[in-house]
């Protein structure tokens, strides 16, 4: 039977590239989006046009009712990719409680809510993969991104703890910590900063969304079946 995968935040960037990669590799793909309907629909159409199976579903991952609605509409999945996320740059002293709560509501509570919704199906079948997207800033910390870095560090803790709990049920839980990837998320960075980041990267380029999609696809594959609780750093050597 074909494996079904849900990718949160799959309308743009890394999630979109992951949706296309899963579609190309014969998975049934559920594309979650929040505000970018046209973009979500276009990746869905591309998968279907090349003979694959895909559907889109709008849900804000930080809203429990919307996440449960997505479960009711999509049904169980074999692979959950918790990718949806937001970033923001601000001096620590300028971070308001509202900014802090929003960051944590999307970046870590969203993972909790989606996992809470979709894990029981995996537990019943004693089979499943959960792949969470953290960030190198969750490993090393980024100046002017304390709330983002803290939320991404929480994703790594979540991954390790859940992996220990679900191992006996045949479910792996892993994490990818991307470096600087060329997506809309970094649109606000000026060219000087982007070229400095590139120069500090041993592979001498920024990452592409497809680079991270490849790592996600690997963690979902049979070849990765003995890997759990891990954080794969995909950053071109930036944090070496
Ligand atoms: P992006 O291009 O800004 O795309 C973000 C995606 O998340 C969009 O599809 C967006 O959907 C979705 N999203 C945001 N809030 C959501 C919500 N409340 N509910 C559902 N979906 C939501 O970002 P990206 O670069 O692809 O980032 C993807 C993940 O990788 C994030 O977790 C990010 O933190 C992580 N990451 C990125 C980088 C990087 O350099 N780009 C580095 C490390 C880690 P809509 O547009 O439909 O609202």
Task: Provide structural commentary.
The chain is globular. The mean pLDDT is 98. It has one domain: NAD(P)-binding Rossmann-like Domain (Rossmann fold, 3-Layer(aba) Sandwich), CATH 3.40.50. 47% of the residues lie in helices and 16% in strands. With 240 residues, the chain is of the alpha/beta class. Bound molecules: NADP nicotinamide-adenine-dinucleotide phosphate.
Going by CATH, the architecture would be 3-Layer(aba) Sandwich
* Domain module tally: 1
Q: Which stretches of 5+ consecutive residues score pLDDT under 50? A: none
Average pLDDT level? 98
Report the total helices. Answer: 8
CATH topology: Rossmann fold
Biggest sheet record:
7 strands, parallel
DSSP strand content: 15-25%
Ligand inventory? NADP nicotinamide-adenine-dinucleotide phosphate
Q: Report the strand count.
A: 7
Assign a percent range to the helix content.
Answer: 40-55%
Keywords, separated by commas or semicolons:
Rossmann fold, 7-stranded parallel beta sheet, 240 residues, 47% helix, binds NADP nicotinamide-adenine-dinucleotide phosphate
What's the SSE blueprint?
Layout: E1 4-7, H1 13-24, E2 28-33, H2 37-49, E3 53-58, H3 64-74, E4 79-82, H4 97-125, E5 128-133, H5 136-140, H6 146-166, E6 171-178, H7 191-199, H8 209-220, E7 231-234
Parallel strand pairs: 1-2, 1-4, 2-3, 4-5, 5-6, 6-7
Helix pairs in contact: 1-2, 1-8, 3-4, 4-6
This protein binds NADP nicotinamide-adenine-dinucleotide phosphate (NAP).
């Amino acid at each position: 039977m074909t494996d079904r995968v849900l990718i949160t935040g799959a309308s743009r960037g890394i999630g979109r590239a992951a949706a296309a990669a899963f579609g190309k590799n014969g998975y049934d793909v559920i594309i979650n989006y929040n505000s970018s309907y046209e973009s979500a629909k276009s990746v869905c159409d591309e998968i279907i046009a090349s003979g694959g199976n895909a559907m889109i579903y709008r849900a804000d991952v930080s809203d429990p009712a919307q996440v449960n609605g997505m479960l009711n509409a999509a049904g169980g999945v074999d692979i959950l990719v918790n990718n949806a996320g937001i970033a923001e740059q601000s001096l620590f002293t300028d971070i308001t409680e509202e900014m802090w709560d929003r960051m944590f509501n999307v970046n870590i509570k969203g993972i909790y809510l989606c996992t809470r919704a979709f894990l029981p199906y995996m537990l019943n079948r004693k089979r499943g993969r959960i792949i969470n997207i953290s960030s190198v800033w969750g490993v090393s910390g980024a100046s002017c991104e304390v709330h983002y870095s803290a939320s991404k560090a929480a994703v790594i803790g979540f991954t390790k703890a859940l992996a220990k709990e679900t191992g006996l049920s045949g479910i792996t839980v892993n994490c990818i910590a991307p470096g600087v990837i060329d997506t809309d998320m970094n649109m606000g960075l000026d060219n000087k900063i982007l070229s400095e980041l590139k120069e500090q990267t041993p592979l001498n380029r920024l990452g592409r969304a497809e680079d991270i999609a490849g790592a996600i696809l690997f963690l979902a594959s049979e070849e990765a079946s003995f890997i759990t609780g891990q954080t794969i750093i995909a950053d071109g050597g930036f944090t070496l």
